Give the backbone structure.
Amino acid sequence: MSPHVLRAATALLALLPAIAGAAPAGEDHAPLQLRLLWAGDPGGGSPSGDSMDFDLFGDTEEQKEASIDPTLAGRIETRRTMLQTHQILGLSTLALMTTSAVLGQLNYTDVYGGGGRTGDYLMAHRVATYSSAGAFLATATFSIFAPVPFEKDPGFDTATAHKIAVIGATAGMLAQVGLGFATARAADAGNAKDLKRFAQIHQAVGYSTVGLMAIATGVWVF
């Protein structure tokens, strides 16, 4: 048992007779144990070189840190680092997806909205799209492989809303890949009608995907 605990117990036991006896003021009727406990300090203060401020249960910061399993602490720290990186990548992905959507709209207007079919935005839109896909994959990787040191309580919370929105955004990204192949075939076949229809679907799915990504980022960050 800790010396501090023994000392506290001795002090409490020594005080009980003093309280029960109601000794007259000015007389030294303190029990011997209590007088010995305060020996060396005639002024009635705490013993020299020591303090009565102690933790009865020994829960000092050093002991709390020492009681944590090093393996568990490592997994917690790894998860924290990976999820912080996941947040940064998520914000970057949202910015890239928004840029891609804006450039896509400019390209659509250029081709189908009377813009003269200059093709000025086509390459920039492709670069932004490929960058968005790469950033999205990297963001998902840091989330999927982050260790889970504790079991999550069942129920709906912000993490659940984040996952639902991310699943929707993932479906949108995959749909865009499929639309890309379909659009390429329509272009090779010279089918202008199908090409415009696929472009319109691509546009709608793109905006929806950006919206879902915004929701996923918002509920996680804010």
